[in-house]
Design brief:
This protein is of the alpha/beta class and 403 residues long. The chain is 35% helix and 23% strand. It is built from 13 helices and 15 strands. The strands form 3 sheets. Strands 1, 2, 3, 4, 5, 6, 13, 14 and 15 form a 9-stranded mixed beta sheet that branches. The chain has a 4-stranded antiparallel beta sheet with strand order 9-11-7-12, covered by helices on one side. It has a two-stranded antiparallel ribbon with strand order 8-10. The chain binds glyoxylic acid and manganese (II) ion (2 copies).
Length: 403
């Protein structure tokens, strides 16, 4: 079995979700922490030491020339997953980073610049609602007070979960010193769509991450009895939410290129024979033009108000996160393309820490082919050979950048 696949095989049973299928590896909890232990051990086997910074980002440095920790070439990804996610979203980038380091050493490369490996916490925002929370804290894209107050579905705050993971909540926030070490960041990620399958190529260079955001709609109604409440007397927030889900598809379809998704909806209290008193619904909207995203959300907020009023309910809308469209650093991306002449240039609709870091440091990405084209699902896939091809491509790019 090729080496990248061997690395992934070692964690193939960690965080499997017997109920949803796939993997559930929420940040700062069992499976994600076990993956981190595995990662730290892999670093140790390579003579490197992982150090966790004050935002929970884990860094490791290969710096045989003893150069100052400045202008480093950094690669890495994340180890947390969405609920019921695939095996590759995050871990492929981490395993490929380790494998690429091995390849550089096997090639006898003597890096003139430090090579850094990084693992970011809560990339998915699956536990605390805001994606790329580690990189947002690092760059100052989110205020630490706001991050610390975020809660998971059990009511545990980010501050408490971070404390449980050995971090000091007082230390969270923009870290210019940590950023100053990065000369450029290159993240490898499994492709999350069909681009490479359709082009029959194993590896792509990323061009951009399309803008995306999350909004929470809370519909307030009247909790009541399913049997004794006549239809005319109901104020059912779940009916409003259902109509809003359909409206999201309709409004998105009217704005070509929009992706609008409701993947999470929580009726309270959630009993079969109970009309809900409240429903929380999370809307994810993405479009290459940020103005279109804003227009879609404005239209859906207006419709939510109308739908709620018609049912005698009320609705609040809160933006939980918003990331504009990011074009990766043109010079760095051109350099990647020159090293990998056969690799197509592809945009992505998925969010990444590389997109957040792009605000502060030159950033680029590589995608490795996913034969199913499916992601955030147990169907996400990468063949052993393609995983290795991705690592070799990353090693080629890093070789070019560090020498
Ligand atoms: C993360 O993968 C996202 O695109 O939401
Ligand atoms: Mn990811
Ligand atoms: Mn993901």
């Amino acid at each position: 079995m090729p080496e990248t696949a061997q690395l992934l095989a070692a964690i193939a049973d960690t965080g499997r979700d017997p109920v949803r299928g796939g993997y559930s590896r929420p940040v700062f909890a069992g499976a994600e922490r076990e993956l981190l232990e595995w990662y730290l051990a892999e670093l140790g086997r390579r003579g490197l030491e992982g150090e966790t910074d004050r935002n929970g980002v884990v860094w490791a440095w290969w710096n045989p020339a003893g150069a100052p920790l400045r202008d480093a070439v950094v690669t890495g990804s994340h180890l947390d997953s969405v609920p019921g996610g695939g095996a590759f979203d995050g871990p492929l980038g981490v395993a490929s980073a380790l494998r690429a380091l091995d390849l550089l050493r096997e090639r006898g490369i003597e890096p003139a610049r430090p090579l850094g490996l990084a693992v970011f916490p809560e990339e998915e925002g699956s536990r605390f609602g805001v994606a790329c929370l580690g990189s947002r804290l690092l760059t100052g894209a989110i205020a630490p007070e706001r991050a610390l107050a975020l809660t998971d579905s059990d009511g545990t705050s980010f501050a408490d979960a971070a404390r449980g993971a050995g971090l000091d909540p007082a230390g969270f926030g923009r870290d210019d010193e940590a950023l100053a070490r990065i000369g450029c960041f290159v993240e490898l990620h499994v492709e999350q769509g069909r681009g490479l399958v359709d082009l029959d190529a194993p590896v792509a260079v990323a061009s951009s991450v399309i803008g995306h955001g999350r909004w929470r709609f809370t519909v307030h109604g009247q909790g009541n009895h399913a049997g004794t409440t006549l239809l005319a007397d109901r104020h059912d927030p779940l009916l409003v939410a259902a109509l809003l889900v359909a409206a999201a598809r309709e409004v998105a379809a009217a704005h070509p290129g929009t992706r609008a998704t409701v993947g999470r909806l929580n009726p309270v209290p959630g009993g079969t024979n109970v009309i809900a008193s409240r429903v929380d619904l999370w809307l994810d909207v993405r479009h290459p033009e940020d103005a279109v995203t804003a227009a879609v959300v404005a239209e859906l907020s207006r419709r939510a108000g109308e739908l709620a009023a018609a049912e005698g309910c009320t609705v609040d809308v809160r933006e939980e996160s918003l990331s504009p469209t990011v074009d990766f650093d043109p010079a760095l991306s051109r350099r990647l393309s020159a090293v990998l002449p056969g690799a197509p240039l592809l945009p992505t609709g998925a969010g990444h820490d590389a997109g957040v870091l792009a605000e502060r440091v030159p950033t680029a990405m590589l995608f490795t082919r996913n034969p199913t084209g499916v992601s955030h699902s147990p169907e996400e896939f990468c063949t052993d050979d393609d995983a290795e091809r991705g690592s070799v491509a990353l090693a080629d790019v890093l070789t070019d950048l560090v020498t």
